[in-house]
Amino acid sequence: MTFAVILAGGIGSRMGNSETPKQYLMLGKQPIIIHTIEKFFVCPDFEHVIVLTPAAWVAHTENMIKKSLGKTDRISVIEGGSTRNETLMNAIRFIEKNYGLADDTIIVTHDAVRPFVTHRIIEENIAAAKKYGATDTVVPATDTIVESKDGEVIFQIPNRATLFQGQTPQSFNAKKLKELYESLTDEEKEILTDACKIFAMKGEKVYLVEGEVSNMKITYPFDLKVAATMLGGDLTND
Amino acid sequence: MINSIYQLTAPRLIEVTYGEIDLSEGGALVRPSHLSICRADQRYYQGARSKEVLAKKLPMALIHECMAEVVFDTTGTFKSGDRVICIPNTPTEDDDVIAENYRRSSKFRSSGFDGFLQDVVLMAPDRLVKISDDVNPDVAAFTELISVAMHIISRFDKTAHQRRNSVGVWGDGNLGFITAILLANLYPDMKLNIFGRHFDKLAYFTFADETIHVDEIPDDLMIDHCFECVGGAGCEPAINQMIDHINPEGTIALSGVSENNVPINTRMVLEKGLRLFGSSRSGREDFEKTVGFLEGSEQSVHYLETLIGETFDVRTIPDIHKAFDADSTLHLGKTVMHWNK
To answer: Are B219 and B268 found together in one domain?
Structure first.
């Protein structure tokens, strides 16, 4: 079975003066998180869509989903964890409890604040995760990436042709992710904030799915302005 | 949800824009899979329409020949994964007399509003016709064009008198080829003559009884009914040849688009008591008939497969340009895009 896992655990601290977590801000006629959830909800491959939010926002999110999609038992909103990986583990625990964790259970994890994800990206994530066990969605790096160890001088400039910028979805064999995560020490868990990195560190191959530049993450107020402009509408939260 | 729409914003310039789909409106959400390029799309793409028309229509997503897969249907008409043919004509009002494709109020994709170069499209379920997985998807991609030929023949059947010993199709291009295949299949006893100006194209019409170059038509050759599938500047000589070679009270079906007025020999139209009727586009009934035809006539589908020119895996906007460029040089046949953007 394949599950969509929408990560909306961030508190949106980077969204300027706005007190509302960024995923709940309006973009066009809908909150950002609803745009994102709908993309996965309509995809027939998903047995269930699991949305993980801060505890305080669970009921609010449920209400919003009901308002836009009507009553549905294909979406569950649950509380996220203290870190991104703990949030993922909450999702896996939810699947294990309600559906059981099979050898071929796939989770497609996606940032709630990337509403421009396309149907093609989702489909290719599912296909690649089934085939390879782990996928990351990326676009070729366009800026030159500079590495500095002390933040003062350049240590090295890697060859841009081999660099990509990570997006989401990231998709995994859920059982494998759980095993790898549980094998980490507390110290490793602190460092390995990205699930794909856990796979890579443990010598597992992570397949690349081609993303889109438009599959942007709405992190800063500037991003929301760009997203609103892309959609051709007014920025209601400006 | 946010949708990506790939619009022609100026000749040879395609840009992605974004729109919102409101699922609460209801309908079937489909993902285009196989898209075929039509001459009308090519004319927009090349900027071969008047400045006024381009200013009025653009920006607009091109492509109205489309097979898609149902992603999600709020109406319960289709199952997820169903293969469907999308009907580009979109009526906005009911009319018991005038067909949906002739109502002035109807909208048409890639003409009056966005075509199918989109990530997903929300369609009314009556704008979709389910098609079997067994039909070659590259042929299914241009079902719309086949349905136009089906529509012409349906109207011919209602209009033409019953002496149908022979028929002539003028035009050795895609529409002529498709119309001829349908005629051969639907009227196996009728003598099928094809008239064209390209020997190499006429050579493909192996299923027809006769292929005749338009400069070599015997003076005494007479035909009961005619189909004009020429269009453009060739319309005038073609229609006048038909008028010369048709028997009295015959029917001429006009279907080639011409940008200019076409002078024809109306004196002889009157003297012979001819019926001329025009056809354009097609409606749901024609799509249903066409899908039934494709599902039921394997041999005809094989003939139609010979029309498939190049196919393109489209993952980027430059891939769309490659497909249009290749199509622009195509002598005969259809260019099909496998939509993976």
So the answer is: yes
- Residue B302 maps to a domain: no
C-alpha to C-alpha distance for B282 and B154, rounded to whole angstroms: 11
> Per the CB < 8 Å rule, is B1 touching A119?
no
The answer to whether residues A132 and A199 touch, using CB atoms and an 8 Å cutoff, is no
CA distance A7 to chain B (A): 17
Alpha-carbon dihedral of residues A34, A37, A43, A48, nearest 10 degrees?
A: -130
- Nearest chain A alpha carbon to B73: A42
Domains and CATH numbers, chain A: 2-138+165-230 (3.90.550.10)
Give the CATH number of the domain where residue B240 resides: 3.40.50.720
User: Do B202 and B192 meet the contact criterion of CB atoms below 8 Å apart?
Assistant: no
Closest CA to B286 of B161, B165, B151: B151
Taking the Cβ of residue A44 and every Cβ of chain B, the question of whether any pair is shorter than 8 Å is answered with: yes
pLDDT value of residue A238 = 35
- CA distance, residue A38 to nearest chain B CA (Å): 6
**Residue B300: both structure tokens together:** 């005809």
Q: Cβ of B4 and A30 within 8 Å?
A: no
Cα→Cα distances B314→A20, B309, B319, B321, Å: 40, 15, 5, 10
pTM of the model: 0.90
Confidence of residue A237 (pLDDT cuts 50, 70, 90): very low
Give the pLDDT band (50/70/90) at residue A18: low
Q: Would an 8 Å CB–CB cutoff place A68 in contact with chain B?
A: yes
What is the rounded average pLDDT of the residues A128-135?
96
A38 touches chain B (CB under 8 A): yes
Do B223 and B188 lie in one domain? The reply is yes
Nearest to A118 among B29, B72, B119 (CB): B119
- Residue B66 token pair: 């489309």
Q: Which residue in A25, A45, A120 has the most chain B C-beta atoms within 10 A of its own C-beta, making it the best mutation to test that interface?
A: A120
**Is the residue at B300 inside a domain?**
no
Q: What domain range is B329 assigned to?
A: 2-142+308-339
Q: At CA A227, angle to CA A222 and CA A229, rounded to 5?
A: 95
Name the domain count of chain B.
Answer: 2
Do residue B80 and residue A44 have CB atoms under 8 angstroms apart?
yes
Q: Do B18 and A231 touch (CB under 8 A)?
A: yes
Question: Which of A118, A120, A232 is closest, CB to CB, to B17?
Answer: A232
Quick one: angle between helices B143-159 and B284-296, nearest 10? 110
The reply to whether B133 and B156 lie within a common domain is: no
Confirm whether B159 is domain-assigned.
yes
Q: Which residues of chain B have pLDDT under 70?
A: none
pLDDT higher than 80, residue A12: no
Q: Is A39 on the interface with B (CB under 8 A)?
A: yes
| Position A234 pLDDT exceeds 50 | no
Q: Which of A43, A70, A118 minimises the CB distance to B71?
A: A43
The neighbouring-strand residues paired with A171 are A108, A135
